[in-house]
């Protein structure tokens, strides 16, 4: 399973980098495969372990912000491993062949 999620603190002003870093730190410390870009952090693993990471990332932001917004998208595909890499490689291979 791959989950792409975004945790946004509300009520703390425009500069939210420190809060987002708290969430990303949780993901990195989880040991699960992950990627972070300007909009989302994606994490790959089994249902319970991925959702636990998301929950702890939200809690890390919630500890310092009065309100938290969570956006989450999941690709639930049992038996698939290394989807974070293989999905991108497939697209790159198609584009390279053009």
UniProtKB/TrEMBL annotation:
Pfam families: Thiamine_BP
InterPro entries linked: MTH1187/YkoF-like, Thiamine_BP, UPF0045_domain
Domain Thiamine-binding protein: 3-92
Family under the similarity heading: Belongs to the UPF0045 family.
Protein name: MTH1187 family thiamine-binding protein
